[in-house]
Amino acid sequence: MKLHFNKTYLAITIILLIIEILIAKYLKTGFIRHTFGDFLVVILMYCFFKSFLEINSLKLAISVLIFSFIIEFLQLANLLSLLNLQNNKFVSIVLGSTFNVTDLIAYTLGIIITLIIEFQSQKLCTK
After folding, report:
1. Are 62 and 88 in contact (CB under 8 A)?
2. What backbone phi and psi angles, to 5 degrees, belong to 3?
3. Cβ 50 vs Cβ 12: under 8 Å
4. Which pTM value belongs to this model?
5. Which of 24, 44, 82, 114 is the most buried (most CB within 10 A)?
6. Which H or E run includes 54?
């Protein structure tokens, strides 16, 4: 792993961040807010790190997935209340406030799709 700037991944990161902000700001319920946003957030994190690091795609994807699962299980332990941050809207949006198994599924599907796209694009580059 070494530092390496990649403007394509940075552009994707910025686009996904804007989409996530719009979802958080304008959608309060429904599939897009509660599931698709979680699907996108792991892709956003993956692309963010790929913007600045030359790192093995599979290792990064697994790391992002593990981090996402840890955050989700901390919600199950009611982390925000333990840290007395349950009334902090920003922290509640970023870390989430309720555990949901469907979030774990969304994270996993997001990483699977990311890896499929990565491996397909790597195949195309080697041809």
Report:
1. no
2. -70, 135
3. no
4. 0.89
5. 114
6. strand 53-54
* Non-local CB neighbours of 16 within 8 Å, separated by 6+ positions: 40, 43, 44, 47
Query: What's the Cα-to-Cα distance from 115 to each of 21, 24, 121, rounded to whole Å?
Result: 24, 26, 10
Structural domain range at position 13: 2-126
List 2's β-bridge partners, or say none.
54
Cβ neighbors of 40 (< 8 A, separation 6 or more) are: 16, 19, 20, 23, 110
pLDDT, position 127: 64
Asked whether the beta carbons of 72 and 2 are under 8 A apart, the reply is no
Place of tokens 């913007």: 51
As beta bridge partners, residue 3 has 53
Straight-line distance from the first to the last Cα atom of the chain, in angstroms, rounded to the nearest whole number: 25
CA distance 96 to 37: 11
Pairing type for strands 2-3 and 53-54 reads antiparallel
Q: Please write the tens of the pLDDT for every residue from 38-55.
A: 999 999 999 999 999 999
SS3 53: strand
What are the structure tokens assigned to 19, written together? 């989409």
